Amino acid sequence: MAAKMTAPELMDFLETVFPQVKDDFEIEEIDDMQVRVRMKIAERHLRPGGTVSGPSMFALADCAVYMAVLAMIGPQALAVTTNCSMDFMRKPAAETDLIADCRLLKLGRVLAVGDVLIYSEGVAAPVARASMTYSIPPR
Amino acid sequence: MAAKMTAPELMDFLETVFPQVKDDFEIEEIDDMQVRVRMKIAERHLRPGGTVSGPSMFALADCAVYMAVLAMIGPQALAVTTNCSMDFMRKPAAETDLIADCRLLKLGRVLAVGDVLIYSEGVAAPVARASMTYSIPPR
Amino acid sequence: MAAKMTAPELMDFLETVFPQVKDDFEIEEIDDMQVRVRMKIAERHLRPGGTVSGPSMFALADCAVYMAVLAMIGPQALAVTTNCSMDFMRKPAAETDLIADCRLLKLGRVLAVGDVLIYSEGVAAPVARASMTYSIPPR
Amino acid sequence: MAAKMTAPELMDFLETVFPQVKDDFEIEEIDDMQVRVRMKIAERHLRPGGTVSGPSMFALADCAVYMAVLAMIGPQALAVTTNCSMDFMRKPAAETDLIADCRLLKLGRVLAVGDVLIYSEGVAAPVARASMTYSIPPR
To answer: Which Gene3D superfamilies match (chains A, B, C, D) (predicted)?
Structure first.
């Protein structure tokens, strides 16, 4: 099963449905059932001390799985997150972009499950792990 | 075991360590091992269509558990989230404040676990459920 | 919305589809969107030292949510667990029955979400917390 | 960081602390921060229809992370599971051994986090995904 959308097509679609996505995220790579997404860290993502906030990491994981699902099924704004689990394992490097590596483990008729590892760019040990379930509306 | 901080004391402390908290959250009630927190919904919390975003709900759940922990152990900025699981069950009402009801289920020497139900104000069925684990630094 | 099955009806149904259930579980109470289930602790549920094993607590949480769903929708063997999150907070009391208090937080057309607190009988602080999502097959 | 225990050493240790492990599990491979574990499926792991039960898959994931932690830190019976999240994505193949691939994502002073993918032997798509947190007692 190959991706149905290229990175530019996906970003164009996301900008029409979630305009804020463009400022925060960049697709580094799309492949069969996987995407790599960069979070362009700015002041609004930081906690005092310069570390990236939990809600920003949640947003990155959520967006990465959404992008991976859309890349495979084509532009459908209505997929929604139904479940998330995250482990926050290390403090992100200060003022450094985050990179999310997402694999879809399941792409069913009604549910998709994606797994995400989040890294501070240039650091080998992951800062967080996430799993997200998306509910896909009937077509 | 009774709360060690009142709502105003807790808000004062949070404003010094997380200045953005004041704009987003209000403590409705503090009790033994539980807090009720209001998220004052503004444009920045919304998705197109007026519904509250996932990262905003994560931020509310995370903050509610943090507040419940601090209320019990006193002002300690260094407690960090290590794990989170959330179920997103219903679409929040458009442009309506969210209310988080948080209970601490465990307050150990090194780990605290809190359970959160999130409601759109005035609506009986919860929009989301969250569990958060905080790691508490040695005193 | 009221329960469609009584405790004896539900146990009878479960025995035909999961014969082992009868040895392990007893329904203490069924109500609108909630059940209380007893796990009759026996040798096979224990770890060395007499404490209840993790898989046994998982089985109890899973079964409690399944029972709560069936009580509401009627006998349907095909609902399946799609997601689970658990926090193990305290060591269960040795050789003591466990009691699971389960509330359904959502009972949708395709997904049901239940929340469970597990106690050692007679002990106030919960030993574990669980959330389970069930996928309900189209009728 | 290299593993401190070989597969036979680890199995010998586990048999003294959890005698039932020997009947259910076999270590296929131990490496730096990762293990592969086989669950030898028997009647007691099955649901009617021949598919492996949820509690059995939980037991496999839990045991795989425990083994991965012990392999790295040496024989310490007292590490305990504090959190688990699982996604059940596909029905396991009937009466087929399960293989768990576990990676430790974090091995800290007090907490370890492991990620597990579970497969029916010989089938490419995973049946389940799990993350487990272990609390490691002070040495």
So the answer is: Hotdog Thioesterase
DSSP structural state of residue D125: S
Tell me whether residue D1 is in a domain. no
Say if strands B128-135 and C80-88 run parallel, antiparallel, or are unpaired. Answer: unpaired
Residue C55 lies in a domain: yes
Residue C1 inside a domain? The answer is no
Closest D-chain CA to C15 = D48
Q: Which residues, at least 6 apart from A9, have a Cβ–Cβ distance to it below 8 Å?
A: none
On whether the CB atoms of residues B41 and B53 are closer than 8 A, the answer is no
- Note the pLDDT tens digit of each residue in A24-47: 999 999 999 999 999 999 988 888
pLDDT digits over D8-54, tens only?
Answer: 999 999 888 887 788 899 999 999 999 999 999 998 888 877 889 99
The residue range of the domain holding C117 is: 7-135
Q: Classify the complex by whether its ipTM is higher than 0.90, answering yes or no.
A: yes
Contacts of C59 in chain D (CB under 8 A): 53-55
Task: Please give the model's pTM, rounded to 2 decimal places.
Answer: 0.95
Contact residues, chain D, for A125 at CB < 8 Å:
106
Q: Residue C104 in contact with residue C114, Cβ under 8 Å?
A: yes
- Picking from C17, C86, C113 by the largest number of D CB atoms within 10 A of its own CB, the best residue to mutate is C86
Beta strand ranges found along chain A (DSSP E): 25-31, 34-39, 80-88, 98-107, 111-120, 128-135
Domain count, chain D: 1
